[in-house]
Amino acid sequence: MSxxxxxxxxxxxGADEIPVIDLSNPNVDVLKHQVYEACSTxxxxxxxxxxxxxxxxxxxxxxxxxxxxxxxxxxxxxxRNSVNARGYFDDELTKRRRDWKExxxxxxxxxxxxxxxxxxxxxxxxxxxxxxPSSSECPKFRDVVVKYFNECARLSxxxxxxxxxxxxxxxxxxxxxxxDRMIQNHTSYLRLxxxxxxxxxxxxxxxxxxxxxPPPLGISPHRDAGFLTILLQDDDCHSLQVARFxxxxxxxxxxxxxxxxxxxxxxxxxxxxxxxxWSNGRFRAPLHRxxxxxxxxxxxxxxxxNPGYSEFIAPLSCRAEDVxxxxxxxxxxxxxWGYFRALRFAGDLTDLGVEIQTSHFxxxxxxxxxxxQMMLMEEVRFEEPFDVExxxxxxxx
Length: 397
What we know:
By secondary structure, the protein is an alpha+beta fold. The chain has one domain: B-lactam Antibiotic, Isopenicillin N Synthase, Chain (Jelly Rolls). Helix content is 28%, strand content 18%. The chain contains 10 helices and 18 strands. It has an 8-stranded mixed sheet. Strands 10-15-12-13 form a 4-stranded antiparallel sheet, with no helix packed on it. The protein has a two-stranded antiparallel ribbon with strand order 4-5. Helix 2 links the parallel strand 1 (20-22) and strand 2 (44-48). The longest helix is centred in the middle third of the chain and has 26 residues, at 141-166. The chain is globular and about 55 Å long. GO terms for molecular function: metal ion binding; oxidoreductase activity. InterPro entries: DIOX_N, IPNS-like_FE2OG_OXY, IPNS-like_sf, Iron_ascorbate_oxido_reductase, Oxoglu/Fe-dep_dioxygenase_dom. It comes from Cyclotella cryptica.
């Protein structure tokens, strides 16, 4: 083989394009090199030959369009609230600013069994329980969404193990057992997004909409909280942007942003906060945002692959000989996923003054979140829906 892995990666993308990775490549050494390079630089890559059947993807896209075309009053019957993170909403806050979008969140049932009735007590968990439209309102919607959800979960496990390989984590090792636990106890959720056109009045520079004080972005700059994200993008409207190789929370210069234009039949993958902590900072949880569009509507669907609620995510052991000495020491304190997720959800609903970040768990941080998570763990049962108002005092303390 004449080309080195790094040259192959460079050939797959330009300087202003995120990498493209072919999951069908039989050369595992090349694959893990490409994954490491992508996750440690951009934190994003496009995945082709991912194994999710094209007909299922097409059915899922149609199901999304069918749901968001329902009457507003019908969707409001599925509205999420302070004790249920799952359901419909059009009022989410990102970085304390309201997003310009409609969404439906569907998550792993607390029972782990999709055949159990959605509202059954056994399906209760920290994120609440699923709410679907009726079969008369949206025929076959639930069946298609569940099939797509399960395919994303299967692919997520495959990708997570590839990420581990790229970090030289041995299967069966203590570091690798996190992935074994995650496939059994993951608390992932699938989000269906609809971004309506946002028409700006050139004279007043204000958005014309019946929504009160909407922001100028579909989603403000943010990082995904979980381990990794599988994103199904819109083929026609390309509004997703990733910040270029930086770690600051606030970027105002448009030159710092690169638009992610999906290849046909591809999925867009990015690493999240938990993967960054687990990799001891070698993987990047990239800052990204979604622009509004004045004349196009946009649909997308991120699948957030998340650990179990009671899982403490800690930096893996950095003993490999080729690892730089500066990353052998742990850069982060252990982070309880259930706590991190609870605060992110609370911040989606209400302004807590600041959004929780991985920086709060750095070993040199003066934040008290590492201590507060232990306090909250004593008070909260992860088998029960998290009540934002009930624990507001703890969250704001």
